[in-house]
Amino acid sequence: MVPPDSLFGVIPTWIGVYLVSALAFGFASYFLYQRVFRLVLLGKPSNRFDQPVRRIIGAVPYIFGQRKVLQRVSIKKDRAGLFHFFIFWGFLSFSLSYALFIFIDVLWRPFSETVLTTSGVKMFVSYLDVIAVVFLAVLVWAAVRRWVLTPRRLSFDLTQGKEAGIILGLIAMLMLFTIFTEAFYVASGGTGPHSAAIIGGALGNAFADAGMGVSLAAGLQGLFWWAHLVVILGFSVYIPISKHMHMIGAPINFVTRNLEARGTLSTPMDLDTAEVFGAFRIQDFTQRQILDGYACSVCGRCSDVCPANISGKILSPMHIVENMKEHVLDVGPALARGEDLQEERPLIGPWIPEEALWDCLTCGACVQECPVGVEHIDSIVDMRRYLVMEKAEMPESGMNALVSLEQRGHPWRGTTFTRTDWTEGLDVKILADHPDTEVLFWVGCTAALEQRSQSVARSMVSVLKRASVDFAILGNEETCTGDPARRMGNEYLYQVLAGQNIETFKQYNVKKIVTICPHCFNTIKNEYPHLGGNFEVMHYSEFVAELIAEGRIKPLIELNTTIAYHDSCYLGRHNEVYEAPRQIANAIPGVKLVEFDRCREQGFCCGAGGGHMWMEESGGRRVNHLRTEQYMDTEADTVAVSCPYCLQMFEEGIGTLNSEGDTEGKLEGKRAVDLLELLDESLGEAEPAD
Question: Is the pLDDT confidence value at 73 over 80?
């Protein structure tokens, strides 16, 4: 866009651009500092600036490729991501045009005359002209979708609709002003590369043919050029005080993302000296956790996929991070001045209900779905740590499990089994008697002490023996990994249990650990290293899939069953183990594998995560009943799992829904099994392979 010669015929354009730009950027910087940066810095350092090259390069697909935004397009046929991708790149294109045609062309003309070639300007102006019209069409679609055909996830945004309207209005004004500036430039007799705009040029010729005077056209061209500049600069001022702060927060989030597996919680190493356990004040959270609130785009995607929210509970992950931000804005300025108002105006309670924190299943669906890199789970668990370790407050059923963990080394109150009862008649080696054993089979509390799950442990032994694997168990030396304690907020108990296990592993110089439970797998593999426990850990699905691929076992007996495989959150979404379980299923003769509608990255939690294996749900429908109904929709006769928690949840769901009689017979003859049980059945009496 060719700038006018002056402002009001008095002030040279370059001086006017300097003045309004300095004013706008001054206000924008002030708001950014006052509302964002000084408040974020009240938190603890995040320690997320290691491996800078890896962080920056890895963030590129998320920022410029919009990977997280586009993930719903193919999976859920959600076209909003595609349109957001277009708006993002359109915005970058126009930002480049502002730098070239307003600031550089006006303020540094010798440079622009050297860099901006005639043919290049013609191509870019034509491109922007077309983009502006397409932009307007997309904005109309966005408005209809936002306020007429409102999807469920946008219904969570009860207070931000006005901001969305302002942003859409500002963008529409920019597009219209671009077209009219070009049109009136052509109508005033303007020539050169800037007159190459296809649509603006055609409109300008129409104005000229209609008899518009040159002076009037020139005046209107100047008016729209300056209006365009004012709107651009107004946009820069509005961003820090609106939800569109995510345009700045999201890129920072992606650069400072967690580089460990998604299921990995942070580990506080100062429990002996910490002033406060967990987090309930601004200064207890990390700077990265506080930044999450500013990065949040209030799109509702996280709450839309949250099993707790879908089942009718009050938890909304979006409101967790949004309300944290509102709390920071409420009491943060006073705290920055040295006045702490958080005793009278606390975060937990007024802003974030305790019930919402206990509703969380830590399944990671919110983190997987978030397009701006928000990490909800760490903040929720930190607040649980405060409730449990500082206030001794948690659901009674969860407290009973913690007491059992502390007193007996496992969360299963009421069980009469010992750690080795399930091995009766199996001739299983104990590691203490065979310290040079190649593989430690980590049984886990549930497979050892819960009657239904003991069948899975026995099948595991059967498979390992057929493959001639040299393995042993710890037996009575095994104690809980601490995962339930950690997810329920008792970090101290977790670290005690983890420390015991790490010392045991080191004592026997354990080389390789194979687990049945994805929760044990995730904890030992990803979280024990924080405490000095670095071991090779595999979930049985990975290990057994390798045995099949190597020919050490070969399923032979046809089972003639159709199975729907359920992805465990802590195996799939948290550790990206998707193919190994399916390889096992596909290796079994006669098995037909079908998928849930929600599978792999989009898998739906069984309802047992986050300690809910032992905690009652607060309200709404049971999550495992919803997942069981999703299993009914697959028309498979068997639901196969690779997690003892999931097995129990499906067993309960099938039994309860059958007894309630509201399934129209869809669950008759249905069953839940672990993949190990199916594999063991298919192996029959086969001898170990060579």
Answer: no
